[in-house]
């Protein structure tokens, strides 16, 4: 499940809230072992996703680098190439 969490730092254009929320959801799913919580756990699950997203936004806002921003298309091509090598399919 966590393979779906992508690097979010140092991109041009910057990481979107949707990308942060998706990564936070994947993290909480992995940690909790649930893809969809029961009604009894729904509130705690949603609160955890919100908390992780807030911390992630703060982290991304505070990190400092001198490296040039990553290109989204180049990074996507690298992911496709790794996937093709791993699963033996054409990219």
Describe the overall structure:
By secondary structure, this protein is mainly alpha-helical. It contains 3 helices and 2 strands; from the N terminus they run βααβα. The chain has one domain (2-87). It has helices spanning 17-32, 42-62, 72-87; strands at 11-12, 70-71. A two-stranded parallel sheet has the order 1-2. The longest helix has 21 residues, at 42-62. It is flat, with a radius of gyration of 16 Å. The relative contact order is 0.16. The model has no long low-confidence stretch (mean pLDDT 90).
Question: How do you describe this structure in short?
Answer:
By secondary structure, the chain is mainly alpha-helical. Helices cover 58% and strands 4% of the residues. The protein has a two-stranded parallel ribbon with strand order 1-2.
What structural category arises from helix and sheet content?
A: mainly alpha
SSE order, as H and E?
EHHEH
Number of discrete domains: 1
Major β-sheet profile: 2 strands, parallel
Beta-strand content: under 5%
- In whole angstroms, the N-to-C terminal distance is 21 Å
General form: flat
Q: Give a count of the beta strands, DSSP E runs of length 2 or more.
A: 2
Order of adjacent strands in the largest pleated sheet: 1-2
Poorly predicted ranges? none
What is the average per-residue confidence, as pLDDT, rounded to a whole number?
90
Radius of gyration: 16 Å
Q: How many helical elements?
A: 3
Fraction of residues in H or I helices: 55-70%
């Amino acid at each position: 499940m966590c393979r779906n969490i992508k690097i979010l730092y140092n991109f041009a254009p910057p990481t979107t809230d949707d990308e942060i929320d998706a990564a936070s959801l994947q993290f909480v799913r992995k940690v909790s072992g649930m893809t969809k919580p029961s009604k009894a756990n729904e509130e705690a699950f949603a609160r955890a996703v919100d908390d992780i997203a807030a911390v992630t936004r703060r982290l991304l806002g505070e990190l400092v680098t001198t490296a040039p921003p990553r290109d989204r298309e180049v990074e996507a091509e690298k992911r496709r190439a790794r996937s093709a090598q791993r699963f033996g399919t054409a990219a």
